[in-house]
Design brief:
The chain is of the alpha/beta class. The chain has seven helices and five strands; from the N terminus they run βααβαβαβααβα. It has a single domain, classed as Rossmann fold (3-Layer(aba) Sandwich), CATH 3.40.50.1110. Helix 4 packs parallel to helix 6. The longest helix is centred in the C-terminal third of the chain and has 18 residues. The relative contact order is 0.20.
Amino acid sequence: MPDVLLFGDSNTHGTPPMARMGTGARLPAERRWTAHAAAALGGDWRLVAEGLPGRTTVFDDPVEGTWRNGLRTLPALLHSHKPLDLVVILLGTNDQKNRFGLNAGDIAAGCARLAREVRRQEIGARVLIAAPPVVTGRGCLAETFAGSERRCAGLSAAIAAAAAAEGAAVVDTAQAVAPDPLDGVHYGPEAHAALGAVLAPAIREALA
């Protein structure tokens, strides 16, 4: 039975598109992409969903807390859930926030750093990096993600290059999903289903 850690942010947690911030809402477990992927893979796979709203790749968030930094928590999670065959990194959305001022190359470098950390922990897991769409930041998240479309253009290509340099598998989720126009960041139920459908074969292929 392959063991897979899904290391992500609010879109792995299941936060729905928001009309206002701070609601704490969450899609039902069966409607999250993680459940769709698990169903597509079948019962002989074990997927561990580890999604934290606000999680970045490697950057401390001065507003929401340094514990949102994925690099700070990844080593503990790797050892908590081992043995693991694969670690899927689904981050980079929150790195696009205006407060960080990052570009596509910066975000790709953060993903690469996480891939190196998986290797550094010597748990024997492979890495699959899922490149997220560039967000639009609308409605209640318009100010938080202001300028993301300009700063982060070319994100998928940058992450693909970084993954190749690290010997990690990569999948471009922007080809299959887009954030809901309500807030320009989070996914609705249909997008979750589409994301599960594109990630299930990518997970299988990463361990082929």
